[in-house]
Each structure stands twice: as structure tokens, then as C-alpha cells.
Amino acid sequence: DLDQSEFDVLNIAGLKFFVDEIRIGTTFDDVVKGGVAPPVPLQLIITDQDPDLDVEWESQAGTFYVLRSSTDPEAELATWESVEVPGSTGVDGVFQIATTPPLNTHTIPRPDDRTRFYRVEEHPLPPVEVLGDDFENGIGGWTAGSAGSAGTAWELGQPTVVGP
Questions:
Q1: What is the fold of 45-124?
Q2: How many C-beta neighbours within 10 Å does residue 17 have?
Q3: Which residue in 2, 103, 152, 164 has the fewest CB atoms around it within 10 Å?
């Protein structure tokens, strides 16, 4: 059995570390109850298919991906170029790649640069608008009602009833 009082100061490589608490477990949840493990970064696999490159990564439903490249891995993310993957959709200069679970695999042209770095970003799909109206043209074919006995306080224009 270990006594935590024996671990107040740890010496590692000649450096002293002062420890407040040590928890030992086999999983992240064993150590931090209700905690969330840090996300696992996507692994991007690039294979030479002269004259092109094959890129692949594990993917999941409900997401889209952006493949970016740069000649400088230390450059700000905003300066990395979005790679146009065949079948991707361009939105404001960023090419969104649809998910194909469990694995996204794409072929891209080999760049002219001697050295180029790639990264893949995973984004949640935006919510789908089922119905939308800004009522700029009046109520149109809408009616307001309620299944409850109190009815509804919904109205078009400046509200006359304020609050819950």
C-alpha cells in the first residue's frame, strides 16, 4: 500500500516536484470521475501514388472535414491553404469535405513544393433549417394557435404582452 504522505516531493532528473495529490487508475474516468478525456487527434495518412497523393483519415457521421496544407508547420492556421479535394464544396474559400464513415479516402495532386505539410480539421455539420420565415411580408398563410386552454401569446409586430 502506498501512503500519499510519501509523495510530497518527487525528485526526477535532479528536479524537485511538489505534489498535492496523486491519483492512480487504468482509465481517465478512474482518475477523474465524470471527466472527459482529451480528444484524440485525427491521424492523417498520406500515401505516394505517383504522380498524386492519397490522403485518408477515420471519419464519423455528423461531421465535415477541411484539409489544409502549408510549407511551414509553425505558420498560423489562418495562413494554411484549404486543399480542394475532388467532390468538396467551396464555402468562402474553404473546401468542405463530406464525411464517408468509417474512412475518408481522397486523391489529390502532388504539390510542386519539395516539402509540404498537411492537417485535417473535423467540424460538426451545421443544424438543418427545417422551416424558416422572417415575417418581412406579414403573416402570410400562418395561423397561431395552442392546444392548451390558455391559448397563445404569439403575435406579429410589436409585442403587447411581455414576459412569461
A1: Immunoglobulin-like (2.60.40)
A2: 10
A3: 164
